[in-house]
Amino acid sequence: MFHIERQGQRRSTFGVDAAAVAIALAIALAVPGHVGAAQQPAASQKPAVDIMLMSKPSPPKMGPNTIEVMLKDAAGKPITDADVSVMFFMAAMPEMKMPEMKNSAALKHVKDGTYSGTAQVMMAGKWDVTVTAKRAGKEIGSKKFPITAEK
Ligand SMILES: [Cu+2]
């Protein structure tokens, strides 16, 4: 089981995000004149939710794939009570006379912040997979993963 983000692509795990936030806050605190400006975007950001995406097989193939998502909160604790869905999107390909393609799947919580389900990959090629996590109908996190599906 591997990340399906392509190699060489930066993974923004929570650790990275937290470090970036910590650095931003440190800079803000170190430069009093900039505190207001630096804190403004941080305050308006969504709550930090770390979203990881895995597929079986990896990389995904045309047809049904098992999709797993792992959710962690800002403290690194698994989020076990979210409603998680994945949306596969492929832009239109005019040269192939193909309209855009889109399909979604709801995942179920399995254990320890891991959500699993089956998603259909309609064709090989590049897709954007958007994972959305909600709680009581309100989005708590969302992340887009570019993937390349094989035949
Ligand atoms: Cu296509």
Q: Could you outline the blueprint of secondary structure elements for this entry?
A:
Elements lengths: L1 E2 L10 H17 L4 H10 L5 E7 L6 E10 L10 E8 L10 E11 L2 E8 L3 E11 L2 E12 L2
Antiparallel strand pairs: 1-2, 2-3, 3-6, 4-5, 4-7, 5-6, 7-8
Gist of the model:
This protein has 151 residues and is α+β, with helices and mostly antiparallel strands.
What is the average of the pLDDT values? Answer: 80
Give the overall shape. Answer: elongated
In CATH, the architecture is Sandwich
The first-to-last residue Cα distance is 19 Å
Oligomeric grouping of the chains: single chain
Bound molecules: copper (II) ion
The biggest beta sheet reads: 8 strands, antiparallel
CATH topology: Immunoglobulin-like
Which CATH first-tier class would you pick? Mainly Beta
Q: Give me the count of strands.
A: 8
Task: Indicate the structural class.
Answer: alpha+beta
The order of strands across the largest sheet is 1-2-3-6-5-4-7-8
Strand content: over 45%
Query: CATH homologous superfamily name?
Result: Macroglobulin (MG2) domain
From the alpha carbons, calculate the radius of gyration and give it in angstroms. Answer: 18 Å
Order of helices and strands: EHHEEEEEEE
Structure description:
The chain is an alpha+beta fold and 151 residues long. The chain has one domain: Immunoglobulin-like, CATH 2.60.40.1930. The protein has helices at 14-30, 35-44; strands spanning 2-3, 50-56, 63-72, 83-90, 101-111, 114-121, 125-135, 138-149. An 8-stranded antiparallel sheet has the order 1-2-3-6-5-4-7-8, with no helix packed on it. Helix 1 (14-30) runs antiparallel to helix 2 (35-44). The radius of gyration is 18 Å and the shape is elongated.
